[in-house]
Amino acid sequence: MTEGFPLGHARLAVGGLDLANPLWLAPLAGVTVPAVRAFFRRLGVALTHTEMVSAAGIVMSNKKTEAMVASPDGRDRPLVMQLFGDDPLLVERGARRALAVGGFDALGLNMACPMPKVFRKGSGARLLEVPQRAREMVLRLSDLGLPLWVKLRKTTALHPLATEDFAAALIEAGADHLTLHGRTAAQRYEGVADREAVLSLARAFPGRVSASGDVFSVEAIRSYLDGGCVGVFLARGILRDPFLVPRALAALGYDVDESLLVPAPERELDLLMEMGRALLDQEGERFALVLLKRFVSCMFKGFTGASAFRRAVAVEMTWEGLSSRLIEGRSLFRYETLREGCLPSGPVPPSGARKESV
Ligand SMILES: Cc1cc2nc3c(=O)[nH]c(=O)nc-3n(C[C@H](O)[C@H](O)[C@H](O)COP(=O)(O)O)c2cc1C
User: Any stretches that span the bilayer, and where are they (predicted)?
Assistant: First the structure.
């Protein structure tokens, strides 16, 4: 019987790391570059991940891959560097090389990716089919002196081991922490994530398991934590609604900067602008535009003028144009319409928490 996640709990000792809260930015290929990690740190996540990094790429001293394991911002810690690969020795060599060139606090190992270019080559969720090889990978990485975090998916009747037995083998081999995405590899990102499968694993290995899958609301976060998970990986939910982070932290009883809780497009645009400048600087104009448009396309829902604003941003092809739109946006929105699901009915309060049922 779980007692529920303690409200306002201070710090957490999880998987060999000291963490300020249980909300963590998931590894997201093509997204979790340093500027995006810094953005979500500002919003309150206690842990970030790199994108998944190819062990083969880093062994070959591929410059792009090496850049992925560096942490240019000393405030972006604790950071998990997630590796993927098919061969235990290669993954170990990749980890050793990453340790030599990077700055991070834990090694992550991907046993969850279902995408063909990873899966077909024997990496990611393919490792669920070969428990011995997965175990050997964990044995090798757990010897390198940093905590080891493994992310996996649910297994099926076609796999050699049930999810819980596979997890037990990884823990026995030295994994410090496991995150279960409650979907099978065949599901990719479709269908509903199996919350009960995640909670069942959390009950089997208390203090060792965090959750991933369909984290789109404070309610989903609460149910994973109340059910025994030690943390929650935030992924598509915070790409759609980054301010879910401070809302959830406030609901869990953590201190949150009040200005992040009030629906304030000016503040949100300022933070986007800050991230945009860093993206431009670190990743180049093309990447900065793609990512900022992706965020803007989902934000500001419920505010008068939001649709026209999003359309105007979508057609900008240069940083100059897009940044001008963001600056204009600061005086564009009015609070006439309430944000769906975020605020109580009635007049919009001048300040105070954005409410969401928990
Ligand atoms: C764009 C994108 C990139 C992702 N990249 C990775 C990755 O590099 N490594 C990984 O373990 N999972 C990756 N994932 C999976 C997420 O970390 C997460 O487990 C998944 O999205 C389920 O959570 P959600 O349903 O709340 O989005 C990715 C997901 C998305 C949408």
Answer: none
